[in-house]
Amino acid sequence: MAPTTDSDSSTAEPLIRFRAARKEFASGAVAVEGLDLDVLPHELLALVGPSGCGKSTTLRMVNRLVEPSSGQVLLEGEDVMSVDAVALRRRIGYVIQHVGLFPHRTVTQNVTTVPRLLGWDKRRAAARVEELLDLVGLDPATYGRRYPHELSGGERQRVGVARALAVDPPVLLMDEPFGAVDPEGRRRLQVEFRRIQQTLGTTVMLVTHDIDEAVSLADRVVVLSRGGVVEQVADPVTLLARPANAFVEQFIGTGR
Ligand code: ADP
Ligand code: MG
């Protein structure tokens, strides 16, 4: 269970808040338009929608890899654009489809990169690696000294998750994190990840084009149409039972 000190998370202050967020790239492409969305503490929120609809851009506005053209993105009430980007990214883990582990560093070195940069001593960092590898289901004694090329796709994603969690960020952004994992491994990883997320109480924004993944894992699902326009925000049961409009109905239908 998520450690909910706030007894009812539906009345809790949002941890992340989009207010009329808009992103128009220099090319003129409007990736996100008029986005209003609250992400509550400890929830796993899935963002779904067709390819090119603005999911990744939405996510990347949270950790400032993309700057909103107008509107705001707030983290714990603070406009992310007014926070130092490095400090911001320490509070926000980020996992993408191909996690981009450093190829010439071992698993242990990959996971401890940020803690070491923050000045953790070797012993503390080593203890943290053990804890994290256990958490993601990799035996530290076996995997700690391996290099990325000695891992399967699923194992690499596990290391990516461990690395993203290294300094205990309250927020995790995940962009198609299981997309490159074989179907069997993917299901296991999804279930294990959900357990980890609930244990730690991490707030997660999960981007996926897989409606089944969204529905089975998320507390709430956001369906976006082109230009990052919100078509529906609902818990999975409501989403499936009462699609808000023809777009949502078609999207959740075609994805299954
Ligand atoms: P999704 O993740 O849902 O597939 P994206 O957020 O990646 O969608 O992209 C949304 C739209 O913005 C697309 O039309 C895409 O081509 C455009 N886009 C994304 N990133 C950039 C960029 N860096 N420069 C210009 N256009 C971009
Ligand atoms: Mg994307």
UniProtKB/TrEMBL annotation:
UniProt keywords, alphabetically: ATP-binding, Nucleotide-binding, Transport
GO molecular function, one term: ABC-type quaternary ammonium compound transporting activity
tRNA-binding among keywords: no
All copies of domain ABC transporter, residue ranges: 16-252
Keyword Nucleotidyltransferase: no
Domain of life: Bacteria
EC number of this enzyme: 7.6.2.9
Family under the similarity heading: Belongs to the ABC transporter superfamily.
Protein name in UniProt: ABC-type quaternary amine transporter
Organism: Sanguibacter suaedae
Residues included from the entire protein: 1 to 256 of 340
